[in-house]
Structures are given as structure tokens and as C-alpha cells.
Amino acid sequence: MADHSSVGASRSLSSTARLPRQRTERRAEGRIQALRRTPTKPAQAPPGRSLPEAHLRTLLGQLDPQRLWGKYLQPLLVERTPGSPGNSKVRQFLEDELRALDAGWQVKVDAFSAPTPLGPVAFASVVATLSPEAPRRLTLACHFDSKLFPPGGPPFLGATDSAVPCALLLELARALDPQLRRSKDRGAPVTLQLLFLDGEEALKEWGPEDSLYGARHLAQRMEQTPHGPGLSELQAIEMFVLLDLLGAPNPVIRSHFPNTASWFQRLSSIEKRLHRLGLLASHPRELMYFQQGPPLGAVDDDHVPFLRRGVPILHVIPTPFPVVWHTAADTEANLHAPTVHNLSRVFAVFLAEYLGLR
Questions:
Q1: Using one digit for the tens of pLDDT, what is the confidence trace for 311-331?
Q2: Going along 55-208, which residue ranges are E strands?
Q3: Which of 171, 200, 238, 353 is catalytic?
Q4: Residue 200 designated active-site
Q5: Tens of pLDDT, residues 277-322
Q6: Structural domains in the chain?
Q7: The one catalytic residue among 25, 97, 161, 244
Q8: 58, 76, 276, 281: which has the highest count of C-beta atoms within 10 A?
Q9: Rounded distance between C-alpha atoms, residue 263 and residue 162, angstroms
């Protein structure tokens, strides 16, 4: 996952070499600061009304922690580097689970081959859209590939990076299935889209040509695909919400982009409200996750190809990164289950309020 340019760890790692940190960080920081100056359209303004408490409690009752962990997370905790059998198996699992939902999602695979430092590699991202004909889309994204580690060492399972985000998206789609189906049936103008991106990780050394393979290919394809009169699929995205590096204890998540700050504030407000209602576990303070203040540094991640094209971005990623980042210790054993389930609750309310689910 993601190049973090100033949180004490360089993302430009290779299976065989590490560039000097300061030079790497300066290069990454310059790249992202330039991207931050890229003009983007403002995200849709948040609705004025929160869910009534009875509605909120009913909604959260549809979430199933055991299903999230057992049915959705466990199958993802395998080595799944691009082009590998594990990658293909996980991609098929994602497709099957999305197609099985009663709401009737359109599920497509963006498959392609790209040159890499290791030669041509096959990539395939999963794109699920609830109502393809809806004028506008709220897009939630994560990556499902895992980082390539040197042979002979321990495997890298990427529990936070990014099995948990993928499991969260599956659980949200399953738990909110009845409401999403009603939203689709009534022809809501904004629909939900889920992206499970392949090839986020560098195969050798992080750089513009060796990273974000699936995101780069899909952003370009969406830019070139018509969606209604005079619009592209890319322009139909109201906001692109990227989840990454989630599942470790005590995450600190901050807002990265001014044009989505109001929606970040909505996440923060939801966390406060759920805390006050006693609906979050192992959560001693009103605000633990979605905190105010600038992030510790810029992060290069799957949102960048969409940001470059003017799409509003809400980046949900902890800074600093989890201590297990890009180590063999990024396993199920080092996840914090209450945090995972608390985040599923915050995101469920967020989706219901954004999409006007009922």
C-alpha cells in the first residue's frame, strides 16, 4: 500500500534494495504536493440531517461481525500478488460474493497486461456498480493484491494492507443489501460503486511506473467510457473514498483534501455519536479514529490516478502507518477486532446518510 512520504518509512522499497530515505521522501513529497494543486471539483455537500436513532440502531443491527471476519476476511488472508494463483482465487471470491447479493450488482473485471520490472504481468480489478444507469456515483475503493516479498522468507498476507478494507466493503454491501436494493428500485440519482483494485503494490521499487497498476488502468478507461450525455464514467464519480491500512489498533485518520473535508467531518461526527450512544467497543474517547488537524504527510496511493483527473478524494488511511506495515507481521493475529467492527459501524452510517438509504 501507499507511499508515505513523511511518516518515518519510505514506500520506495524493493525486494533487493532500499533507496536512501531522505532522497526518496523528497521525491515522493514533491510529486504529491504537485497533485494536491491539481484542480478538482467540489464534492457534493453533506446532507443536513443525521439518521434518527431508531433507524441508526436498526441499520447497525444488520451488520454481522462474525460474517465480516469469518466469511469475508478469512478467504482474503492468503498471498495474492498479481498474476499468482492466490490473486486469481481472491478475485473470483470477490466476484462471486458481489454477484450473490440480492440487490443485483453489475460486476465487471478490468483485466489487462502491463509491463513491469519483472516482465509482463496480468492484472484484473473488480468493478461492482449497483445501478450503472444512475447519473452519479459514490465510489468506495480498496486494493486486494499483496506485496511481493523475496522468495524463501515468510509470506506477506497483508491483513491491514488491504484484506480488512476489502472485507469491510463486502460486509457493508451485504449488510445494507435491503436498503441498497430499495434505492436501486426507486431510481436514486446517486448509486454505490465498489472497486477492488489489483496491482497497487510495487513489484520491485515504488515509482510512477511500478505501482498503482490497476488504478492507473481503470482511471484511464473510465475517462474514455461515456456515461450519459457529454459525461464519462470518471465524471460520474461524485466522490472517491479510498480505504487502506485499516484494522490495527488505535488508528489516527485525518483529512487530506479540502474539497472533501466536510465529508471527513461527517465521519468524525458519526464516530462521536456512536460513542455517545454506547455503540462502539473498546472506544474510551469520543474521537479516536477520525481526528482533526493536518495529516503527518502526503500519501501516494490508489486515489492518485483519479485525483489527477479532478475526482474529489476522501482518503481513509491512518497516519502514521500501522507498525506491521510491509512486514510479515501484518497478519490476522495483529488485527484489533473491535476497531474493525467499529469502523464497519461508522461506514454503514456514513453510506446510509450519503445515499439517503431507508
A1: 999 999 999 999 999 999 999
A2: 106-114, 121-129, 136-143, 190-197
A3: 200
A4: yes
A5: 999 999 999 999 999 999 888 899 999 999 999 999 999 999 999 9
A6: 3-355 (3.40.630.10)
A7: 244
A8: 76
A9: 23
